[in-house]
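WARN retry 2 of 3 for item q-0093 after timeout on previous attempt; input resubmitted unchanged.
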Amino acid sequence: MRSVFAILACCGAVVVAFPKPAFAQAPVAQIGRDAPKVVAVDPATAQGLTSAGDDRPPPDIDVRAADFISENVRLKGQWFYAAENQGRKLPTVIIAPGWGGTAVMLHKDALDLARAGFLVMLFDYRGWGDSEGRVMLTGQKPGAGGDFTAQVRELRGYVDPSEQVEDWFNAISYAVTDPMVDAGRIGILGSDLAGGHVIAVAAHEPRIKALVSQVSSVDTRPYKPYQLDPANVIAQANAAASRIATGQEPYPAERARIDGAPLGAKVGAAVGAKVVRWAPVEEAIQVTTPALFVLAQKEELFANANNGQLACERVMGPRKLVMIPDITHYGIYDVERKRAMMVTIDWFDRFLKPAGAPTRVPVNPKEPERGPCNPPPVPPKGEEDANGSGEGHRAQDASGRFN
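OK item q-0093 returned
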């Protein structure tokens, strides 16, 4: 947490100067298909990364600032595009991180999409990475002429899914004003918690023409066996919400670690009961946008059957599910990042690019519009085709999940 002072500019308007936030995310190295496997780690626990703005792009990619306002908070983002496409109107993909992540973690994905012919907008949520955070008044001293000196605290490094989804909506409203954005060809990409955010966004935003949800966390309500006592988890969250509402407890400390991740405590604590009632899977039935789900076969943080696969079954538009074999949740960011990005590019090629535009592989006109959510296994590495999907399990009945 930070405390800063600002002088009231005129009768009730607080002007706050923010210190530059610290950054504690480290990039995951790109790993080739034939490279030795490494242990997948939670990217939110990586340390020692500088600002996204300090990361220098390769010479074939142009990067410029994409700063915008979301509910009176200035968010920091970047545009990525191939240098040869400077000034052209392009199909556009918007990306934001999952739980505890920051935008700089996703630079490799942005570079791959830019090289594939897309304009890419990557941004940090409020209170994370390079973005500013909301502030709360913690004290004030009277001044002359009705002015006062205000002491405020910037709220950073907490997890509030509803706020983050509002940041997505405002990112889209900002993006359509850029002259390089083809406003009729906008896609969104999210992983982990953001894999649920893109479902929530597409359910209410008709300007989205394609989405990709990776290692999809679309229902964070507690259930067994991932929480041994779901009712107690909910009770504790509700009690925390009451303490916040009555002023007995502040927002969680910046980047507080929470228990529950098999590979180490996750970074970023939830605000009150915001996470235990978050379930964009219930909105999936409103999604008519073409939706691709890229899941980890050995997902250990939640049940695919109650998350990505259930959302896949519920979406109403074109759909496809790719189950990447033999990886756990964080493998999507390192050991199989390239495979996940290839199927992602192919999906955006199919549904965002105009007819005749270059694509990574030829678009298969015979591929079904609504693929199975319980697909056959992926062939061994080196033998898969462009349309390979993976082993899965039919979504289970979610009734009684809180018992």
